[in-house]
Amino acid sequence: MSGHLSLDEEVRLYATNAEREKYSLLATLFGIIVALDYLERAYIRDALTADEYSPACTRLLSQYMTMLKLVKDSVPSIEQFMAHYRMDTPAALHRIKVGVPATVEHSSEAG
């Protein structure tokens, strides 16, 4: 055998700085989606007030939109991204599709 495989050797996801940046951006997008899902679930369980929830949700949605622009070449759709990385975050997906916090969504439905 010509190649020696060391179990102590670090396996790299990337070979170039551009690839490293790509994976870093994808990881950030993943984190935003997970955070949004936790936020939605906390609000649903009444662990947050509307005054705490709304600005946090607006900020995460804004961060999501910014990240999506940065990774548009790697992420054809949010559904495909979530399926590829086996994300089970239905509350986040719903909030992303609606695009506004639940407090805004439900106040516009009532009025």
Automatic annotation (TrEMBL):
GO MF annotation, one: protein-containing complex binding
Domain VPS28 N-terminal per the UniProt entry, residue ranges: 1-106
Database matches in PROSITE patterns: VPS28_N
Keyword Ribonucleoprotein: no
UniProt record, GO biological process: protein transport to vacuole involved in ubiquitin-dependent protein catabolic process via the multivesicular body sorting pathway
GO cellular component, one term: ESCRT I complex
PANTHER family, per the entry: VACUOLAR PROTEIN SORTING 28, ISOFORM 2 VPS28, VACUOLAR PROTEIN SORTING-ASSOCIATED PROTEIN 28 HOMOLOG
Protein name: VPS28-domain-containing protein
Source organism of the structure: Boletus edulis BED1
